[in-house]
């Protein structure tokens, strides 16, 4: 009994010492860091970049903090591990692709550590606005257009010499209620779509490489989404939007963008049939966007390659438009290693299909990923972690473009 108490006292005395040291793989320094700057025994504090130093490596494994004690999207496993110093857009170009790019969003642009990396046009040769060109942002009231957010992204692309993807004209989501809850005749809604797409695409005429004119038209079972557009206009609405976009900017590539078409299935078949129908009717359609919101270890690169080939055989180009590969948190070295393999598989699939023109990640850092707020308990989906440290995934991408 006495002996046990003595042990407990001894253990308690050790606790403050342990807590004042960063755990293996933990942060131990960097600009703005106020936590521990020494590492637990067996590990060394190594500078990854000015913003992040980490306790590396060490045999003893330290349990990560439970998810509830960490901010959403935080990765707890070793984030470093990327060794490539090559720049991804440079690699993509050398490999014959048009670009490697990223989504970005207006609120992030006040983060100067973020923009320092975003503005590197050897890293990113293309950007997509994550939100600010969507319908709710651009025509919140009927006939009232607001382009300030979109203009900020467009001018960033211009200043940095990056391609711009427009995202998007017609989508069931992020619609202002005057559209989603409006009651329209077919003629009225046709005119609403024409006016929206035409005004939006005209505004950015000459600045946009490709527009996602129609976003996510199908349910996973291959049926059409029953949104206001389909309910009022049936299968004709993509044609209305595509023709309005073509008239507004004849030089822009016009895309349909979709997810869960990256392997064979009802949804991919439905979209393929739509592509065939539109092409047969000479409706302007230049590309298919494969969003590629994946889960670590749960997709097949060869299946993606087959889909890219199948769609581009119809005379359209393809692009990977919203790539991220999420995991259930906390991240582990094994998950990050699988994520590296998975990123590499996506790049390899695009590399093996000539008409796959480029790859866009849906933001490059976990700090601004949409994943944690959308998929509960999941995150760490981007190639850089929340401290802007390159993850093993970065090497997977670099190797994919270099193969
Ligand atoms: C996401 C944005 O990243 C989030 O900030 C927003 O809250 C919801 O939309 N498919 C798409 C994108 O086509 O527009 C979505 O972007 C992610 C899924």
The general outline is: globular
Ligands in the structure? Answer: (3S,4R)-3-hydroxy-2-oxopiperidin-4-yl beta-D-xylopyranoside
Note the total helix count.
Answer: 14
The strands making up the biggest β-sheet line up spatially as 4-5-6-7-8-9-11-12
Describe this structure in words.
37% of the residues lie in helices and 18% in strands. The protein is of the alpha/beta class. An eight-stranded parallel β-barrel has the order 4-5-6-7-8-9-11-12, surrounded by six helices. It is globular, with a radius of gyration of 24 Å. Pathway: Glycan degradation; xylan degradation.
What tags apply to this protein structure?
disordered N terminus, 3-stranded antiparallel sheet, 37% helix, binds (3S,4R)-3-hydroxy-2-oxopiperidin-4-yl beta-D-xylopyranoside, alpha/beta, 13 strands, 14 helices
List the helices and strands and how they pair.
Blueprint: H1 2-19, E1 27-29, E2 44-49, E3 52-56, H2 88-94, E4 99-104, H3 112-118, E5 126-129, H4 135-138, H5 148-160, E6 163-170, H6 177-180, H7 186-203, E7 210-215, H8 228-233, H9 237-248, E8 253-258, H10 266-280, E9 287-290, E10 293-295, H11 301-312, E11 317-328, H12 333-351, E12 356-361, H13 371-374, E13 378-379, H14 392-402
Bound molecules: (3S,4R)-3-hydroxy-2-oxopiperidin-4-yl beta-D-xylopyranoside (XIL).
């Amino acid at each position: 009994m006495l002996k046990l108490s003595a042990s407990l006292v001894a253990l308690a005395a050790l606790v403050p010492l342990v807590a004042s040291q960063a755990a293996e793989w933990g942060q131990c320094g960097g600009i703005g860091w106020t936590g521990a700057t020494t590492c637990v025994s067996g590990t060394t504090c190594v500078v990854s970049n000015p913003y992040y130093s980490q306790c590396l490596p060490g045999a003893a494994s330290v349990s990560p903090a439970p998810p509830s004690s960490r901010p959403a999207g935080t990765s707890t496993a070793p984030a470093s591990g990327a060794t490539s110093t090559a720049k991804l857009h440079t690699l993509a170009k050398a490999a014959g692709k048009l670009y490697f790019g990223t989504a970005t969003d207006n609120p992030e642009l006040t983060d100067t550590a973020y923009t320092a990396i975003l503005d590197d046009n050897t890293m990113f040769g293309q950007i997509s606005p994550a939100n600010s060109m969507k319908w709710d942002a651009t025509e919140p009231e009927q006939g009232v257009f607001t382009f300030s957010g979109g203009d900020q992204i467009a001018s960033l692309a211009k200043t940095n010499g990056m391609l711009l993807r427009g995202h998007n004209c017609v989508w069931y989501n992020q619609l202002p209620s005057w559209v989603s809850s409006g009651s329209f005749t077919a003629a009225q809604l046709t005119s609403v779509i024409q006016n929206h797409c035409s005004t939006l695409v005209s505004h950015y005429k000459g600045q946009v490489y490709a527009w996602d004119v129609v976003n996510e038209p199908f349910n996973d079972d291959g049926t059409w989404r029953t949104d206001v557009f389909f309910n009022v206009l049936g299968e004709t609405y993509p044609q209305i939007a595509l023709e309005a976009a073509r008239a507004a900017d004849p030089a822009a590539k016009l895309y349909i963008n979709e997810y869960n078409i990256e392997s064979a299935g009802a949804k991919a078949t439905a979209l393929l049939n739509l592509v065939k129908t539109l092409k047969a009717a000479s409706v302007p359609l230049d590309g298919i966007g494969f969003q590629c919101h994946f889960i670590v270890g749960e997709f097949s690169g060869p299946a993606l390659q087959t889909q890219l080939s199948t769609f581009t055989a119809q005379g359209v180009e393809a692009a990977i438009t919203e790539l991220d590969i999420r995991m259930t948190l906390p991240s582990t070295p094994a998950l990050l290693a699988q994520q590296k393999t998975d990123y590499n598989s996506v790049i390899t699939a695009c590399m093996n299909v000539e008409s796959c023109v480029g790859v866009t990640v849906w933001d490059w850092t976990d700090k601004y990923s949409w994943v944690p707020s959308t998929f509960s308990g999941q995150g760490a989906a981007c190639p850089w972690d929340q401290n802007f440290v390159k993850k093993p995934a970065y090497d997977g991408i670099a190797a994919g473009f270099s193969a």
